Amino acid sequence: MSSVKAVLRTKSNSQKLFPIAIRIIKDRKTSFLYTGQYIHKNQWDKNKGQVKKSHPDSLNINQLIFKKLSKVNRGLLEAEVKDEYQSSINIKNKVIQTHSSDFFNVAEMYLKNIADRDKSHQLAIEFKRIEVFKVFLDRDKLFFNDLNIELLKKFENHLIVKLKLSRRTMVNYMITIRTIFNLAIRNSFTDIKFYPFGKGKYSIKFPETKKIGLNIDEITLLENIQNITKAQQYALSVWLLSFYFAGIRISDVLQLKWEDFLDNRLHYRMNKNNKLVSLKVPEKVQNILKNLERDKNSTYLFKELEGVNLNDNKQLRTRIKTATRNFNRRLEIIAEKAGINKKLSMHIARHSFGNISGDRIPIQILQKLYRHSSVTTTILYQSNFMQKETDEALDKVIDF
Known about the structure:
Elements: E1 2-8, E2 18-26, E3 29-39, E4 44-45, E5 50-51, H1 58-81, H2 88-96, H3 103-116, H4 120-137, H5 149-162, H6 167-186, H7 216-223, H8 230-244, H9 250-253, E6 261-262, E7 265-269, E8 276-280, H10 283-291, H11 313-338, H12 348-357, H13 363-370, H14 375-382, H15 388-398
Antiparallel strand pairs: 1-2, 2-3, 4-5, 6-7, 7-8
């Protein structure tokens, strides 16, 4: 006895979307063939086993579901005609040994998922990486069982030697390939036995990066600098506010609104990971707020995003990028006037907070200030600045 039906699985992904799958029951044993499509629960018609018409892409998704159902039913019928035993897993594996086992078909699904989240910047980056990989292979198809350790090492060498990319950039390419492979496994398009990544296989290692921040004396120079233009003072206010709030990113600083400051606290949601943040407003920040010129109709502390549609990711990203470039130009001039020999930029505000915090506060508190999900991330980030123990150890050996 066997049955085949399109169903919506009950476990959602990180975007609270649920996967559509083909449920195959054969001899009371069940397996699922995933379509790679995710929807909201209220967009699924359980009785009809298809996506409701209210979904903007219902026609294409329903056609995909019908195609998958047809292939599974064909496999069952062929087994009946040949009078051979086929388990639910055997039927599923026969189906996935078609176009879905091609890396670039799953890559298209990966790109569509990014596009559905309206992440235009990430989409452009990931598309380019996949195209570079395709040009390297000089073919349009790549089965997952051919994507092995040897091929990955050849691609790594191609990126570094021929394209002259940095090791950090090369790692990003490998992460994209690994992410697509994981997506294929998660949707049963390939078997985990072909997985080429991990211990004893191809290992993705992040190269150490040099992080340099300002010290207390240099921050003091900035706080007390004189004879700078109004535009330079404005840029410095943005930088100092970022630093005083534990190095919050420029994209978050520019989106801060006057209404985010309540009861002498800042309340905002981080753009990178959507986490809520509540921080005390230090006295030094209060002075910045007092000096900022607030128009009656102004929404933001800093006016770079006035008139920008925050739902238009491309427009928002462009405006932030332009503002950051302008700030960095002014900050370079400020650093020169202050006699600071380090490159002063918006991003270094976060590094400066890390440099000064160093061994001053417990790593768990620093994790909360940075809003890292794992303390391991904080330790890795902060290891660039925590030098007290190594300095003392060095002195103990050579101080004789």
